[in-house]
């Protein structure tokens, strides 16, 4: 399925005409709770619904991290509603929940597995992100938690039919949320670029994203303008397009236990190990480099990344720690008690396989020791 994309800070003006083409008499709306009104979505969408003259069944009573019990509840509500279209507006968790509900409304199978059977036609799914960072609007996978374990459910039919990326819905996002989601997008783009699964197409998307985000991320946190917000939203979308082809690597793999066990928002969790893994992945290329990578090509990619950021590989870890501190993603760390065994046991091995260099146990332990010292100063 080829996704239709509307990109730019007036793109949501197209929503009425898009919905008109589907002619829904009843639609199923997934949305955030307080954020739906705060970001301006409630006023904008109510106007569209009024013009459309359709009945709207809303679902917003679910956790910020999509859980199995919420998914089951949403599927039942969608079934009872008789809706012919699913519309979602919100952050990454809202969009992931919508993608999962729409998919499992039509597909059977183990929801945390990888074998599914189509039972009925898919309902159309239209999504509008209200944060700039997760890229969920552009991917064919979604996060799902079961028994406090984080899974990534993947299938081509999880990809939304229509994505409307309008940065106006991000204008009121607070600094910390902007930093978390924005850095998540930057990490996604970098991880897609150095990925063992990278292609010419994913590289094109990744570089487009990196250039947009690197130039604008600090500004969108410290002194956002409409232009900067729009650039970050665009960068986030292209990062999503990139990881839709490659998936993510070690920084995301290590982020899972920090979110599950310590409650860090996803982007912040990714930031914790990113400086160490950035330097590790781009240095000593003769050691532990994946045999799936061409050394000459990968060395060129490394030089391109370092050139964009204007940093030497030997200084890159400290450089990213300072950068993330400027974004508020190290200064706002909680005083957590590290359980390194629990963290290592919670690493997502599927994502780790995509990393350009093999992560040894010794390196992982050393990285966590250094992170603990950085957090606690001892």
UniProtKB/TrEMBL annotation:
GO biological process: antibiotic biosynthetic process
Domain Fe-containing alcohol dehydrogenase-like C-terminal stretches: 178-284
Molecular function GO terms recorded: alcohol dehydrogenase (NAD+) activity; metal ion binding
Residues covered by the Alcohol dehydrogenase iron-type/glycerol dehydrogenase GldA domain: 3-166
Origin superkingdom: Bacteria
Pfam families found in the cross-reference section: ADH_Fe_C, Fe-ADH
Keyword tags: Oxidoreductase
InterPro entries: ADH_Fe/GldA, ADH_Fe_C, ADH_Fe_CS, Alcohol_dehydrogenase_Fe, PhpC
PANTHER family (UniProt xref): ALCOHOL DEHYDROGENASE, DEHYDROGENASE, PUTATIVE-RELATED
Record family assignment: Belongs to the iron-containing alcohol dehydrogenase family.
Record-given protein name: Putative alcohol dehydrogenase
Species the sequence originates in: Bacteroides fragilis (strain YCH46)
């Amino acid at each position: 399925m080829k996704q239709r994309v509307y990109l730019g800070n007036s793109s949501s003006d197209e929503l009425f005409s898009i919905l008109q083409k589907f002619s829904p008499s009843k639609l199923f709306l997934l949305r955030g709770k307080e954020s739906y009104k705060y970001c301006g979505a409630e006023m904008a969408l109510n106007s569209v619904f009024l013009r459309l003259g359709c009945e709207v069944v809303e679902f917003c009573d679910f956790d910020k991290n999509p859980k199995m019990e919420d998914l089951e509840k949403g599927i039942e509500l969608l079934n009872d509603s008789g809706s012919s279209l699913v519309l979602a507006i919100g952050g990454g968790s809202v969009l992931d929940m919508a993608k999962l509900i729409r998919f499992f409304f039509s597909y059977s199978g183990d929801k945390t597995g990888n074998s599914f059977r189509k039972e009925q036609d898919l309902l159309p799914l239209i999504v509008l992100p209200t944060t700039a960072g997760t890229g969920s609007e552009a991917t064919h996978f979604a996060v799902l938690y079961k028994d406090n374990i984080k899974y990534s459910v993947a299938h081509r039919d999880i990809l939304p039919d229509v994505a409307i990326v309008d940065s106006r819905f991000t204008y009121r996002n607070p600094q910390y949320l902007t930093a978390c989601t924005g850095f998540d997008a930057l990490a996604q783009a970098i991880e897609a670029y150095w990925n063992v699964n990278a292609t010419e197409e994913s590289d094109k998307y990744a570089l487009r994203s990196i250039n947009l985000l690197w130039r604008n991320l600090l500004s969108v946190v410290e002194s956002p303008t409409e232009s900067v917000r729009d650039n970050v939203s665009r960068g986030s979308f292209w990062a999503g397009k990139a990881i839709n082809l490659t998936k993510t690597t070690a920084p995301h793999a290590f982020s899972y236990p920090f979110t599950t066990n310590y409650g860090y928002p996803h982007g912040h969790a990714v930031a914790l190990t990113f400086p160490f893994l950035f330097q590790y992945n781009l240095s000593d290329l003769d050691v532990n480099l994946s045999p799936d990578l061409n050394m000459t090509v990968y060395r060129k990619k490394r030089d391109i990344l370092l050139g964009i950021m204007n940093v030497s590989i030997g200084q890159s870890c400290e450089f990213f720690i300072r950068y993330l501190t400027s974004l508020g993603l190290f200064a706002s760390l909680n005083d957590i008690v590290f359980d390194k065994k629990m963290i290592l046991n919670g690493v997502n091995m599927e994502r780790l396989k995509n990393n350009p260099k093999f992560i040894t146990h010794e390196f992982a332990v050393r990285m966590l020791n250094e992170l603990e010292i950085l957090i606690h100063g001892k």
